[in-house]
Amino acid sequence: MIVAGCDVGSLTAKAVIMENEAMLSSAVIRAGTRPAESAEAVMEMAAARAGLKLADISRIVGTGYGRERIPFADSVESEISCHAKGIWRLVPSARMVIDIGGQDAKATRLDANGKVGRFIYNDKCASGTGRFLEIMAEALEVPLGQMGAMGEHSRQKLTISNQCVIFAESEVISLVNDGKELPDILNALHHAMARRVASLARSIEVVPDVVMTGGVAKNCGVFNALSKALDVPLKSLDGMDPQIMGALGAAWYAAENEKNH
Amino acid sequence: MSIFAGCDVGSLTSKAVIMKNNKIIGSYILKSKPRPGDSAEASINGALEAAGLSLANIDCCIATGYGRDKIGFADGAVSEISCHGRGAYWLLPSAQMVIDIGGQDCKVMKLDANGRVERFTTNDKCASGTGRFLEVMARVLEVDISELGSLSRKARAPVTLASTCTIWAQADVIKYLNSGTAIEDIGAGINTAMAKRVAILASSMRTEGDVLMTGGVAKNTGVVSTLEKLLGVRIKKTRKADPQLAGAIGAAVIAGNGGGI
């Protein structure tokens, strides 16, 4: 039995293909302006990697911001549910999922059965979302994917005091003009981001184990800073890509639906 | 007769005013330079030149604004709130509420009958509702910020910006531009979004008397007229001087009082 999950976010589209509860392949692409096209492209890429065709997949669950526009999805699930499902299947001890996406940040509590409890999200303000890092990467002319590693070379502690992305960007530019070192600025940005996300998570009470999902979790600077800001070590995903957790959870929904059929 | 000066070094613009006999005899506005000291120097020199005077002719100069502590030639520094209150009172003695929108903040002040600030509230945490919001949007629309206000008058079907956050609203504006929406309709939507945000701050401080708007945004007719509708009051216009000079005027008046507010 082959199933799949497809997560069409604001910035990226992700797909996961599973057979008999084991992952066969995954794919992540930059999302275009049309969610349907992004969904098709990412699903085809994941299928090709598994040596499959779309027709070989018996059930597909869609999720993410563009989930209603995935033409081949048999059903849809919310992002909160999918991230919780993906994480619970991977890390059964997880009681809190912090997911930072391109345009939002969410914290979700799970019980021992993987059921979603309290959750909170910020999609009103770009601060504490992936967009914050994207804008800073552009301003500093650093590739987004290298921010984390570069920040690890920081030697001097700096603080970004503004929460607003617009004001923080000006603050960063002043730091550059003051001759501050790039790793120090990056490190300060990671901590600023972590502080914002930590205060969101604390509002629904932080219960370990805590895991981090979404593309921003790949930034080791934010990952470590969040651990510090929460005063809780973040549980690792054992080499699994944190960005595909929503798609993985959607694939698990597809597997469960298929079983119950 | 003594001659006094006020110098208001803001985040985006710097202003200086020379006063003699309670009248403005020279003023100057320029875009702020990276160093507040340089901005102060350039603004006072511009105002002195307009008045046909030199620094030696000034009996007392008071500095205000975000860079007020870094101005070598000033005899003292006074907070922005006090200076804007004083300046507003000088511009319109009947003013009871003053809405001052600066480059990076928005202040709402309640004045007593003598022009002293009784209460005030500010937003300097979020770029939305500050001059910065309009600056960002003007850049996206590729119009000069001074032309933004008049777009409201020419709009036929103003758009609605769904997001308060400057970053998300900017993405909305880009979408409208890409879909071919008329620039006037987008501009009107921007001015309305700005007015809505300021109205929230202003309505926390209702007063019976006259309302005066100061700061550069007071020159944006689109924002002012929408704000009038939202607050249900007429916003008084002052012809005595450029409303953007209010802080510098207040500083000069305070200089004339020997530094007393």
Notes on the protein architecture:
The complex is a heterodimer of chains A (261) and B (261). Chain A is of the alpha/beta class and 261 residues long. Chain A has two domains: 1-91 and 244-261, ATPase, nucleotide binding domain (Nucleotidyltransferase, domain 5), CATH 3.30.420; 95-236, Nucleotidyltransferase, domain 5. Helix content of chain A is 40%, strand content 20%. Chain A is built from eight helices and nine strands. Chain A has helices at residues 35-49, 79-90, 130-140, 147-151, 165-177, 182-202, 220-230, 245-260; strands at residues 2-8, 12-19, 22-30, 59-63, 75-76, 96-100, 105-110, 116-122, 210-213. Chain A has a five-stranded mixed β-sheet with strand order 3-2-1-4-5. A four-stranded mixed β-sheet of chain A has the order 8-7-6-9, with helices on both faces. The mean pLDDT of chain A is 94. Chain B has 261 residues and is an alpha/beta fold. Chain B folds into two domains: 3-81 and 245-256, 2-Layer Sandwich (Nucleotidyltransferase, domain 5); 95-237, ATPase, nucleotide binding domain (Nucleotidyltransferase, domain 5, 2-Layer Sandwich), CATH 3.30.420.40. A five-stranded mixed β-sheet of chain B has the order 3-2-1-4-5. A five-stranded mixed β-sheet of chain B has the order 8-7-6-9-10. In chain B, helix 6 crosses helix 7. At the A-B interface, helix 5 of A face helix 5 of B.
Which key features would you list for this structure?
heterodimer; A: 261 residues; alpha/beta; Nucleotidyltransferase, domain 5; 2 domains; 5-stranded mixed sheet; 4-stranded mixed sheet; globular; B: 261 residues; 10 strands
